[in-house]
Amino acid sequence: MRTQPNLNLVAATCSTCGATHTITTTARSIAVDVCSNCHPAYTGRESTVARGGRVERFNRRRELAA
Ligand SMILES: [Zn+2]
């Protein structure tokens, strides 16, 4: 029985949310910008919050103008 020499268990830290994921990779170390924990495509929350904030600001400006 042989173990695969190229695969390492590496802790990858996400630079956006700081979550650490253990990834099996051929690299010795790895850094990720976006992970499944904070990517808008996965969470769907970030874009919704941003849109809500923009609408809120727009409505506030309309109230001031009226
Ligand atoms: Zn992340």
Task: Note down, in words, how this protein is organized.
The chain is 36% helix and 23% strand. With 66 residues, the protein is an alpha+beta fold. It has one domain. The protein has a three-stranded mixed beta sheet with strand order 2-1-3, with no helix packed on it. The radius of gyration is 21 Å and the shape is rod-shaped. 0% of the residues are buried. Bound molecules: zinc ion. The site of zinc ion has 8 residues, from loops.
How is this fold's topology laid out?
Elements: E1 8-14, E2 20-25, E3 31-32, H1 40-43, H2 46-65
Parallel strand pairs: 1-3
Antiparallel strand pairs: 1-2
Bound molecules: zinc ion (ZN).
The site of zinc ion (ZN) has 8 residues, from loops.
Number of β-strand runs: 3
The fraction of residues in strands falls at 15-25%
> What's the rounded overall pLDDT mean?
76
Number of domains: 1
Radius of gyration equals 21 Å
Bound molecules: zinc ion
Low-confidence stretches: none
Derived from helix and strand composition plus strand pairing, the structural class reads alpha+beta
- Major beta sheet summary: 3 strands, mixed
Shape: rod-shaped
Q: Report the order of strands and helices.
A: EEEHH
Task: Give the termini distance in whole angstroms.
Answer: 78 Å
Order of strands across the biggest sheet? 2-1-3
